[in-house]
Specification:
The complex is a heterodimer of chains A (604) and B (672).
Chain A lengths: L1 H23 L20 E3 L6 E3 L26 E4 L7 E4 L27 H88 L4 H30 L4 H37 L10 H6 L11 H13 L14 H16 L5 H12 L18 E3 L1 H12 L4 H17 L9 H32 L15 E7 L2 E6 L3 E6 L2 E12 L4 E6 L10 E8 L4 E9 L2 E8 L5 H16 L9
Parallel strand pairs in A: 11-13
Antiparallel strand pairs in A: 1-2, 3-4, 5-6, 6-7, 7-8, 8-9, 9-10, 10-11, 12-13
Helix pairs in contact in A: 2-10, 2-11, 2-12, 4-8, 10-11
Chain B lengths: L3 H4 L2 H20 L15 H7 L9 E9 L2 E8 L22 E8 L3 E8 L36 E7 L2 E6 L4 E6 L5 E5 L6 E2 L14 E3 L2 E3 L8 E8 L3 E4 L24 E3 L21 E5 L4 E6 L5 E6 L13 E8 L4 E6 L4 H12 L12 E3 L7 H13 L6 E4 L20 H10 L3 E5 L3 E3 L5 H9 L13 E3 L2 E5 L5 H9 L13 E5 L19 E2 L3 E2 H4 L3 H16 L8 E3 L11 E3 L7 H16 L5 E2 L1 E2 L8 H11 L5 E3 L15
Parallel strand pairs in B: 20-21, 20-33, 21-22, 22-26, 26-29, 29-30, 30-31, 32-33
Antiparallel strand pairs in B: 1-2, 2-3, 3-4, 4-19, 5-6, 6-7, 7-8, 8-12, 9-12, 10-11, 12-18, 13-15, 14-17, 15-16, 16-19, 17-18, 23-25, 24-25, 27-28
Helix pairs in contact in B: 8-10
Classes of the chains: A alpha+beta (604), B alpha+beta (672).
Chain lengths: 604, 672
């Protein structure tokens, strides 16, 4: 079978050579001219295409450039602006720069660009064309499937979008009702507290009177002091409990927040040190007018007040210091090479993590960091980021859903009615005029208040996160809607790249993560996603990432590169850009290729 | 954590602030080029002493026993009169033994070349270094045999034939060398006309307390052989301008005076091969290469002077009136030449046309090697083209935009951990295939090979060099261990012809795995650059082959390295393929081995401007195949600057674009 194929291929090649030898070497007049242009060159006096001149037919392809635009020399390299057409039967026709004509290098697969005999260019169009056609066919197949997937995705996206919008409007009305209820409860709670306070005061006064009647003044004083102390102590404790209760139904992750906050004081200290460390780096870099003194890194600064002094440096430190002028890198780094052991590489890792993450060591820290970051912004802008899982492409949707399940699932009016009822009952049941204040009733009011305000704040945060989401541009057909809750990952050597559309992109190495950019926008009519304003480069620009989108059946991130320092590029295959128009274009191209085949090949 | 300042009393706070302010001032003043990292003349004892002398202020020497021997003039130089008592005064090292005579020899070469050699007599405690392998090997065979010596004025001078129309004169007391027109007696060139000739002879230490050490920026130069400098004045008669003595960055082709009336404080022109970070565009400080060759040009004629000496050299161009403000000389330029060590081996070129001077100079140091055709075309370089994909994309970019280019370059990152002759296995897994793809389009590739050798026992080159003792030694006799790109590194002792041969072998296709016949070489960092030594170069007391101190040959180190590389490529191609080797360091004679460029310039207009006189100067001193990094190595050129630089660069003999790794990509089509 294989043998037969080879024989038939050989025959076809021979055939092809024969064809090209007999038919495809054109006369001087038609050299390098596209078939559709042949008529243009028919007359005896020909105009330059730019209208600047005319030339007689004898001067066509005479190796002398008459027309500034190269009209008269389509088949030679005489005109700098010229273009040479190769027919490339069996493959696609090609127009090349006329500088490639007879330059000793085969450019056209039919060899027509090298005709002066200096080199012999075999005709490779059939093989090359076959490969190209196969490639194109594959691409078309991908597009065909991709278009279908895209349609489904777009449908889903539209539904999801509508659902989100519906949820938003529902949440808004719930918010309104809840706000009212909470307000009522709050007022009631305050009244109770006021009453309690009065009661307490009375009691105290009574006690005071009793105590005054006792003999030892000193003891008395001491006792009263203690009691007042107790009461001040109690307040924050109570508050803490409130806080705990606030969160009591909001699952583990809020608790995490709480615990992190306490842990963080330690970590913060560490982070602070790292911060300081970074500051010196950054400052010295600036002082030195940007690039010139990239060498002043922290441990040198610390050596002495005049950081330029190289005395007291070990010979290795000095070497690194000087090298770092050219590399602009922290001199603890070992110029991307590894011999002097991995320890150094490791050191570097740590440095970097400090630099980029202000002492970030654990996930809980990261939570904390995000909160800090977003304080001035919406506190939930980046909600869900902390739940990234180490899969290629994943969604944080489930987490979201779990978090709000009690709201979305019970988002029926009956749920609200019930609450309204309960609140009203509570409010009515409680009598303000009974003294002493009924403790259990007061507790009910408080509990109800806490529950509801926690629910309210949840609804509000969900509203703001929905607002945040819906404000984005998700493409013509909202085809990128599902990207909002997803991240794409790709591992390249020691780095893992994470791209979270509409949010951010980062480069992760071990525990250190470098932000390549925040979501900026789509470019080139949704063919490029731009992330900008990432972490600042050492004496360089802010990092940025351009993700080029390509039609593919799966969402896959690949080919991350850094062609210029700190300017990253990547390719994301996704059905979202498998457009029908493009498919038609490709099909047309294949058709053209097939029709341009020399007739002798059909028998294959 | 409270900062220090929070706890400190206000005075301390104030002091801290002041210190900070000072630091800031310091940094802004020394923005890029670290002037104070390099020795100036004041900090260089031999330069300071020589520069401080007045004409005819030191005891003069006279020529005795002037005679012809072996077809050349020989004489002994002795003090003119008994040593005056207590001349020490301002001259701390003049407290010497009664000097031994110096041996003088004058010889003549065809075409108008006079050679003057002055060295100590054989009784000196040590042989002074004479730079080998710079002069053409057949030079001695070409020497003219002087038939006679005429002493016209009652033995006060001796004159002899130099070239048709020219004669050389040795004036006996005080000794002076003159080159002059035969008929008119008009002088062309002269040496020691101002009595500044000084030759510190080697001697034993006066007593054990005598301190010969020199300290600079925390480093001590042991100077075990003590002071040994040489200085003298050279006059270019009928000259309005002098040129040459690269390498300096300057906005002027002619050398501006560095001393004398009308000159504000200036350093002399320094010839000391150094890796200078972000050099400034206009300064007499030394850069990467040294050619101690000066040309003069005036209304009447041109002439030249070359001092074959590879030690640190400082040269003053003296403004008219420097010797006598009342009567400034017209149409004459005086110069003061100072060197830390070595001998006098000087050449006078009579001209009289500029092209004659150049012919005479290249007649002894050689003419430029004929470059291959591709080498004079456009070169595309960057630190770094990252991997094979990057290379392919850049190559395709040129085709796509119909921009001609012939050579693609790979900087240090292509190697496996800066072990030259190796490839990074991840980034360049198929170097041969990559080169062959380029070669299929008639293109070439250049990779970098620097002289620092990574001290890694698993690296075969380091292993071989260590085992065979091929490294330069430090002052204590151990292999010198310095810091460069590769980290801890040693340097091949390329003064040794055997080491050069060994190095050349490394370029064979068999030894340089992954190399193909279309791969050529770039020698960088060969000043040599050593990051952790003051002035970023090898210590002067490092020891080379034949017990030569680094101070004696420093300026020629890069030359020998360039030579070894170039010979390696010649061998590789069985002598049938002309080598292409770009070198950053250079010396007189480098033109025979390849091309040079002006090193790490910056992307600004001043440097664009300075590149023109710099490259013209190289051309005037024999290195006609030279260029500057198009676009500027450091920094990002604005599009207008880049366009202008390409326009200018097309006229550089060596036309290469290059850029630092931190700069934005600037392949020519990226600017629309």
């Amino acid at each position: 079978m294989g043998g037969r194929l080879r024989i038939s291929l050989t025959i076809s090649c021979l055939l092809l050579i024969w064809i090209s030898a007999s038919a495809s070497i054109p006369s001087r007049e038609s050299l390098g001219i596209a078939p559709q242009d042949l008529s243009y060159y028919k007359s005896d006096v020909i105009k330059c295409k730019d209208g600047s001149k005319k030339f007689p037919k004898e001067q066509l392809n005479d190796e002398f450039c008459d027309c500034p635009d190269g009209t008269d020399e389509p088949g030679t390299s005489a005109c700098p602006q010229g273009k040479f057409y190769c027919r490339n039967a069996g493959h696609i026709p090609l127009t090349i720069f006329s500088s490639r004509v007879n330059d000793g290098i085969c450019d056209c697969c039919d060899g027509s660009d090298e005709y002066n005999g200096n080199v012999n260019c075999p005709n490779t169009c059939w093989e090359a064309g076959k490969v190209a056609r196969e490639k194109l066919q594959k691409k078309i197949a991908t597009f065909q499937n991709g278009v279908t997937i895209r349609k489904q995705e777009v449908e889903k996206a539209k539904q999801a979008f509508a659902k989100d919008e519906a949820e938003l409007s529902k949440l808004r009305s719930e918010e309104k009702i809840l706000e009212e209820l909470v307000q009522k409860l709050k007022e009631q709670k305050e009244r109770i507290e006021k009453a309690e306070e009065e009661e307490h005061k009375k009691k105290e006064e009574e006690e005071k009177r009793l105590k005054e009647s006792e003999t030892k003044a000193n003891e008395l004083k001491k006792a009263s002091k203690e009691s007042s102390h107790d009461s001040t102590d109690q307040a924050p404790e109570l508050h803490n409990q409130d806080a705990m209760e606030d969160h009591h139904d909001s699952a583990v992750e809020d608790k995490n927040d709480y615990t992190t906050e306490t842990e963080i004081s330690d970590n913060q200290a560490v982070g602070k040190v790292a911060d300081d460390h970074d500051d010196t780096i950054a400052k010295s870099g600036h002082e030195a007018d940007g690039r010139s003194d990239g060498s002043s890194f922290s441990h040198v600064e610390k050596q002495g007040p005049v950081s330029d002094s190289t005395e007291g440096l070990s010979r290795e430190e000095l070497g690194r210091l000087v090298a770092s002028r050219w590399t602009q890198e922290d001199a603890t780094e070992e110029n991307n090479e590894v011999n002097t052991a991995k320890e150094e590489g490791h050191e570097h890792d740590e440095d970097e993590s400090e630099e980029n993450h202000d002492g970030y060591n654990s996930d809980s820290d990261e939570d904390h960091k995000f909160e800090d970051d977003d304080l001035e912004d919406d506190p939930h802008t980046e909600f869900g980021e902390d739940h990234e899982e180490p899969t290629g492409a994943y969604s944080s949707d489930e987490d979201d859903k779990a978090d709000y399940s009690d709201l979305t699932v019970s988002g029926s009016s009956s749920w609200l009615d019930k609450i309204q009822q309960t609140v009203n009952n509570v409010l009515q049941a409680f009598s303000l005029f009974r003294r002493p204040v009924n403790i259990s009733e007061a507790a009910t009011v408080r509990k109800e208040y806490d529950d509801l305000s926690s629910k309210l704040s949840k609804i509000q945060s969900r509203i703001s996160s929905l607002n945040e989401k819906l404000k984005h541009d998700f493409g013509k057909d909202k085809e990128f809607y599902s990207f909002y809750d997803r991240c794409f990952e790709s591992k390249q050597n020691k780095y893992t790249y994470k791209v979270c559309p509409f949010k951010k992109a980062s480069q992760v190495e071990g525990h250190s993560s470098t932000r390549l950019g925040h979501w900026d926008k789509f470019e080139e009519s949704y063919r490029v996603m731009l992330f900008s304003n990432g972490d600042r480069c050492w004496n360089g620009p802010d990092r940025s990432l351009k993700v080029r989108l390509r039609c593919g059946l799966k969402d896959e991130l690949a080919d991350i590169d850094e062609p210029s320092r700190c300017e990253y590029v990547a390719i994301l295959s996704t059905p979202a850009v498998c457009l029908e128009e493009k498919l038609k274009e490709l099909q047309q191209k294949l058709e053209d290729m097939n029709t341009s085949q020399p007739s002798g090949h059909d028998e294959l | 954590m409270p900062s220090l300042a929070d706890r400190s009393p206000p005075i301390l706070l104030l002091l801290l602030l002041l210190l900070l302010l000072l630091l800031l001032l310091f940094f802004s003043a020394a923005s890029a080029w670290k002037k104070d990292e390099f020795r100036n003349c004041e900090q260089t004892p031999f330069c300071k002493r020589a520069r401080g002398r007045k004409p005819h202020s030191i005891p003069s020497l006279s020529a005795a026993d002037v005679s012809l021997s072996d077809g050349a003039v020989s004489a002994r130089l002795l003090p003119s009169q008994p040593l005056r008592q207590a001349t020490a005064g301002d001259d701390p090292e003049s407290d010497r033994d009664p000097p031994r005579p110096l041996l003088l020899r004058l010889s003549v070469y065809p075409g108008g070349v006079l050679r003057l050699q002055i060295d100590e007599d054989p009784s000196a405690p040590r042989r002074r270094f004479q730079v080998p392998d710079v002069l053409l090997p057949d030079l001695d065979n070409r020497r003219l045999w002087l038939p006679r010596l005429s002493s016209p004025a009652a033995g006060s001078s001796s004159s002899f034939y130099l070239a048709d129309g020219f004669e050389a004169v040795l004036i006996h007391d005080p000794f002076e060398i003159q080159v002059r027109w035969k008929g008119s007696g008009e002088p062309v060139l002269s040496l020691n006309s101002h009595g500044l000739f000084d030759f510190e002879q080697l001697r034993a230490k006066k007593n054990d307390d005598e301190d010969w050490e020199e300290r600079f920026r925390g480093h001590t130069d042991t100077r075990p052989h003590g002071p040994q400098s040489i200085s003298f004045d050279v006059s270019f008669h009928s000259a309005d301008f002098v040129y040459g003595i690269p390498e300096h960055a300057s906005s002027s082709l002619s050398l501006r005076p560095t001393s004398g009336p009308g000159v504000e404080h200036s350093e002399p022109y320094r010839l000391f091969n150094l890796d200078v970070f972000e050099y400034v565009a206009d300064s007499p400080f030394g850069l990467y290469g040294a050619i101690p060759f000066m040309l003069s040009h005036g209304a009447g004629s041109s002439s030249g002077f070359f001092w074959l000496n590879a030690a640190e050299m400082q040269i003053d161009v003296l403004a008219p009136g420097w010797d006598d403000p009342a009567a400034p000389a017209k149409g004459r330029i005086d110069t003061l030449w100072m060197s830390e060590a070595g001998v006098v081996d000087a050449f006078f070129f009579v001209g009289p046309e500029p092209k004659d001077v150049l012919r005479q100079y290249t007649g002894i140091t050689g003419t430029p090697a004929m470059p291959q055709e591709f080498a004079v075309a456009y070169h595309q370089c960057r630190w770094n083209y990252r991997d094979e994909q990057d290379v392919a994309a850049v190559d395709a970019g040129f085709d796509e935009h119909d921009i001609p280019y012939d050579v693609l370059w790979l900087d240090i990152e292509h190697t496996d951990g800066k072990r030259y002759f190796t490839w990074d296995r991840v980034l360049f897994p198929n170097p041969k295939e990559m080169q062959e793809k380029l070669a299929a389009k008639g293109r070439h590739m250049v990779t970098i090979v620097d002289p620092h050798i990574k001290r890694d026992d698993s690296f075969y080159i380091h292993k071989e060099a260590t085992e065979r003792g091929y490294y330069v030694k430090d002052a204590t006799g151990k292999d010198f261990d310095g810091w460069c790109w590769a980290g801890s590194s040693s340097y091949g002792d390329v003064l040794n012809p055997k080491v050069r041969e060994w190095w050349a072998e490394k370029f064979s296709f068999q030894n340089y795995v992954g190399s193909t016949p279309t791969l050529y070489i770039w020698n960088d960092m060969n000043e040599p650059s050593v990051f952790n030594i003051p002035e970023i170069t090898m210590p002067r007391d490092a020891i080379h082959y034949g017990d030569v101190e680094h101070r004696e040959l420093h300026n020629a180190y890069g030359y020998y390295f360039h030579m070894a590389t170039s010979n390696g490529l010649l061998k590789r191609g069985n002598g049938k393929d002309r080598p292409f080797v770009l070198s950053r360091a250079f010396f007189a004679g480098s033109q025979r081995y390849g091309t040079v460029w002006t090193g790490d310039n910056s992307a600004n207009w001043d440097q664009l401007r300075a590149s023109v006189p710099m490259i013209l100067t190289l051309g005037l001193t024999g290195l006609s195949f030279s260029g500057a990094d198009v676009g500027g190595f450091f920094g990002n050129p604005e599009p207008e600057l880049l366009v202008r630089w390409y326009q200018l660069g097309a006229y550089y003999p060596f036309f290469r674009a290059h850029a630092h790794q931190d700069t934005k990509r600037r392949e020519p089509w990226l600017f629309g």
